[in-house]
Amino acid sequence: MLRKSITYFFWLSVAVSLTNSFTLKNDIIGEVLFILIPVLLAADLGLKFLWKQKPREAETGGDGNSEKEKLFAKVPVEQRPNFKEWSVQHHGRTIRVINWYSLRPLVGAAHLFIDGVEVDCSRAMTHSPKKPLLVSGNVKVFFSGALSVKASVVDGEELIHRDDLSLADKIVNKLSSFVRWQ
User: Fold this and answer.
1) Best-predicted range by mean pLDDT among 42-46, 73-77, 178-182?
2) What is the DSSP letter of 77?
3) I need a surface site. Which of 36, 53, 74, 112 has the fewest CB within 10 A?
4) Where are the beta strands (DSSP E) in 15-115?
């Protein structure tokens, strides 16, 4: 409720600032909003990254059958929103990673397949890019990205796949070191 209120006040402040800029042109309102908007933005982003989510087990019993996930149960994985897939051949094995997510409702999943067998799955919607989200034996999959999902696959100590990171991705990765992840 607190985060929703801060987000609401942020957008309200932006709307009032635009109205003031184009019609009212009141200096006092402009000065107050000049300070208020960055503060609300920082609070909103801070709460977004620090807000503790309920553990997945508490919501679904760990079986992935929450009401939100049931909306996509009959949709083939390849047709789910924001679907992305990576596949690499390494030491005679096929390592395949799938990721998809929806922002409305907030739901998604990442899957790790080795030689066609699913070996790990996560339904986490946020995660530290410094820690692997999917792990099976020596194979570890890291996710990051600011505007789109990027993946890196490591087998033991050998990097076998890495998406190129944009400047925005690199900035988000640097900032993520200041965030407490679950």
Assistant:
1) 42-46
2) G
3) 74
4) 84-90, 93-103, 106-114
The encoded tokens of residue 52 equal: 């503790």
The residue whose two tokens read 């699913």 is 118
Question: Is residue 17 within 8 Å of 26, Cβ to Cβ?
Answer: no
- Cβ contact 17:30 at 8 Å: yes
**Res 68: pLDDT:** 64
Q: How many Å apart are CA 150 and CA 168, to the nearest integer?
A: 12
Of the chain, the end-to-end C-alpha distance in Å amounts to 20
Q: Report the pLDDT averaged over residues 159-172.
A: 81
Tell me the residue type at 6. I
Q: State the pTM of this model.
A: 0.57
CA 96 vs CA 35, 112, 130: distances in Å: 48, 6, 20
With beta carbons less than 8 A apart as the criterion, state whether 122 and 131 touch: no
Cβ(141)–Cβ(110) under 8 Å? Answer: yes
Phi first, then psi: give them for residue 2, nearest 5 degrees.
-65, -45
* Lowest-confidence pick of 70-79, 95-104, 171-180: 171-180
Structure tokens at 85: 């897939």
Among residues 53, 82, 127, 174, the alpha carbon closest in space to that of 141 is found at: 127
Nearest to 3 by CA among 53, 48, 49: 48
The closest alpha carbon to 68, from 119, 14, 15, 108, belongs to 108
